[in-house]
Every structure is written in structure tokens, then in C-alpha cells.
């Protein structure tokens, strides 16, 4: 069983601790996504892209309209290049 320890922290110290934890989490996520890049198919459907990011289809539509992600059309189907999605994720602005 894990133990919960409470420390007296200033708001700035708490913010720093949270940011460091998030930074580590995001770096590990990016590393995992980069490793998966070589083992998965290169083009994703809208549904697969939404699952990849863990968002809804309307969010993917908004991201396309805002220019946050690039898409490719073939007939009435939309596809996304996995490597470009990862690159756009790596180049996005950080939260901290």
C-alpha cells in the first residue's frame, strides 16, 4: 500500500513539482509514440487519429480547420500521416 505524505509547499513550489511531473510524463509519452511510429501503419483514418490522441471526431475536425494537424483527402475519405502527427505534437507549444 502506498503512503501519502503531506509537505508544506508554497504555491510556486507546488507548481514546479506538478510541472516536473507532467514534463516527465509527456517526454515518456512522446518517446513511446516515436517508438510505435515504426511498428504501425503510416496513414490513419479520422477515427484512428481521434483514438491516437484520445479525443472526439469533432475535435479532429476543429484541429484540421484551425491548421493544427494536416490531413490528406482521397475521394470523400480523410487520412492523416502518423509521422506528421507525431512531429506536430513534438513541435506544439508546451503547457509550462
Tell me the strand percentage band: 5-15%
> What gross morphology would you assign?
elongated
Please describe the biggest sheet, giving its number of strands, its sense, and whether it closes into a barrel: 3 strands, antiparallel
How many domain modules? 1
Second rung of CATH, namely the architecture: Orthogonal Bundle
Order of neighbouring strands in the sheet with most strands: 1-3-2
Q: pLDDT under 50 segments (min length 5)?
A: none
User: What is the number of beta strands?
Assistant: 3
Specify Rg, calculated over alpha carbons: 18 Å
Number of helices: 4
First-residue to last-residue Cα separation: 32 Å
The CATH topology: Arc Repressor Mutant, subunit A
Regarding CATH, which class?
Answer: Mainly Alpha
Please state the average pLDDT score: 85
**Secondary-structure element sequence?**
HEHHEEH
Structural class: mainly alpha
Proportion in helices: 55-70%
Overview of this protein structure:
Strand 2 and strand 3 form a beta hairpin. The two termini are 32 Å apart. Helix 1 packs antiparallel against helix 4. This protein has helices at residues 11-37, 46-53, 57-66, 82-90; strands at 43-45, 72-74, 77-81. The protein is mostly helical. The protein has a single domain (13-90), classed as Arc Repressor Mutant, subunit A (Orthogonal Bundle). It has 4 helices and 3 strands, in the order H-E-H-H-E-E-H. A 3-stranded antiparallel β-sheet has the order 1-3-2.
Amino acid at each position: 500500500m502506498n503512503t501519502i505524505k503531506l509537505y508544506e509547499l508554497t504555491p510556486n513550489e507546488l507548481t514546479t513539482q506538478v510541472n516536473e511531473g507532467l514534463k516527465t510524463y509527456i517526454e515518456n509519452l512522446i518517446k513511446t509514440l516515436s517508438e510505435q511510429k515504426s511498428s504501425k501503419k503510416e496513414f490513419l483514418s479520422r477515427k484512428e487519429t481521434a483514438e491516437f490522441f484520445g479525443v472526439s471526431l469533432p475535435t479532429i475536425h476543429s484541429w484540421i480547420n484551425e491548421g493544427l494537424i494536416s490531413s490528406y483527402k482521397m475521394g470523400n475519405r480523410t487520412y492523416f500521416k502518423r509521422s506528421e502527427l507525431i512531429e506536430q505534437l513534438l513541435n506544439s507549444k508546451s503547457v509550462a
